[in-house]
Input
Amino acid sequence: MNSFIYPKAKFIAGVDEVGRRPLVGAVVKAAVILDPK
Output
């Protein structure tokens, strides 16, 4: 975690989204938080 940019952050989540517009089909989203240790 970059404490200079996010000095008060306890968690940072990486987020990804995949899909071909909601009109064509489902949109799948995911977020991951890893243990910094």
